Amino acid sequence: MTFLKFYDILLYRKEAIMSLYIRSLTSEEEIELNNIARNGTDVKFARRAQVILASDARTPVKQIAKVLGYSHLQVRRIIHSFDQGVDGIRPKYQGGRPLTFNEEQRRAVVELAENHPRDLGYPLSQWSLSQIQLVLIKEKKISYISRPTIRTILKEAGLTYQRTKTWKQSNDPHFIKKNEL
What we know:
Homeodomain-like_sf, Transposase, mainly alpha, 2 domains
């Protein structure tokens, strides 16, 4: 048991909660924490940022805990973990489903998308997700892959798939003049 945990338990048992505040925030940290607290997509991270901002405003631990729905021990741990900076309060990766496709398969998807279809012998002017899917399965690089997965792999590689928009050209010889009005 670490000293911090022992100290927190001791304080909890005596119900004598001492005031604890964070160190002074740098202007960059304050801007980042405000941004995370207001616009953060990760709820845990946003709430932890709110704890730090409240502590910076010299709000007592007990009051922060009551307002944000944490125990005072959780608030104290968040404040102590902020000693490592903003990354100290960032939630850690807690597992999840492993990747379905290995690096070699992901590379095959990206390489196919980066090449022009005609260069590979396909009579297409551009790739669609369905066409990439069919070629990957046909060439037996991947047994099955969904279109959303292809989109995700391309996005992770910094490529974006965008549907092309087509339009009909007018047969009217005065079309351009009419549109200028």
